[in-house]
Design brief:
This protein has 5 helices and 4 strands. By secondary structure, the protein is an alpha+beta fold.
Length: 120
């Protein structure tokens, strides 16, 4: 695991403890629709249907940034839960810090944020 990945998981843990994060499909969907989500992360091993649903939802509701990162077990572990396929971060500052790390990883690994090279 790269230092950038560790930093993202640490920030997700901080967001969880400060109650600035919700996880699970229903809670994430609710946060996006109520325009409370500053960032959405979907596990890269989530189903294509889940990825497409959240991609469309984040685009429609206020153009919320969405990233596909980690797997269900790692995302859940970072929050002290069993496994999670999706999560939404409320706090803009934490969301910006997480997004900065994710962008750094993309630059290093040649990955992409939704819409640039993603084919859903």
């Amino acid at each position: 695991m790269s230092p950038e990945e560790k930093k993202v998981f640490n920030l997700l843990g901080i967001a969880t403890k400060s109650r600035n994060l919700v996880s699970g499909e229903f809670s994430t969907e609710k946060a996006v629709k109520e325009r409370k989500a500053a960032l959405v992360i979907v596990a890269s091993d989530a189903s294509d249907n889940t990825k497409k649903m959240f991609t469309n939802m984040c685009t429609f509701y206020n153009n919320v940034p969405i990233y596909f990162f980690g797997d269900k077990d790692d995302l859940g572990h970072a929050m002290g839960k069993e496994f999670r396929a999706s999560l939404a971060v409320f706090d803009k500052g934490l969301a910006d810090a997480i997004e900065k790390q994710l962008k750094m990883m993309q630059d290093i690994n040649g990955g992409s944020k939704h819409g640039e090279n993603e084919n859903l």
